[in-house]
Amino acid sequence: MNPDDACPIRDILNRFGDKWSILVMVQLHRHRVLRFSAIGKSIPDISQRMLAVTLRTLEADGLVKRKVYPEVPPRVEYQLTTMGESLIPLIRNMVEWARENRGEIIRSRNAYEGRE
């Protein structure tokens, strides 16, 4: 693990450091296939612009597949790729770790900020 820009993990982890990527992936895993509007409804505080940017980024990385149906109006569906699905166990582990440690982290933050 190199601390410089050539570190192979840095670029990959930066993709998941945003607020939305993991949430979008979890929804796609949960529902298997979703349309844009359904993803937006499942994450109510994401803007349409941020959802579009997030989906494009995940698609560019090969984690999400976009399928356009030649209909009027066009129907577009999203689903995780095999590589995207392979991240789900890791995301589950992070969620479980966060659940187990959330109270201690909050106590530590409060102590650091002088609230305890």
Automatic annotation (TrEMBL):
Name of the protein this chain belongs to = DNA-binding HxlR family transcriptional regulator
Organism's domain of life?
Bacteria
**Residues annotated as domain HTH hxlR-type:** 7-106
Pfam families for this protein:
HxlR (PF01638)
Give the organism the record lists. Acetobacteroides hydrogenigenes
Q: Which InterPro entries match?
A: HTH_HxlR (IPR002577), WH-like_DNA-bd_sf (IPR036388), WH_DNA-bd_sf (IPR036390)
Alphabetical keyword list: DNA-binding, Transcription, Transcription regulation
Q: Which GO terms describe its molecular function?
A: DNA binding
Q: Which PROSITE patterns match?
A: HTH_HXLR
Record's keyword annotation contains DNA-binding: yes
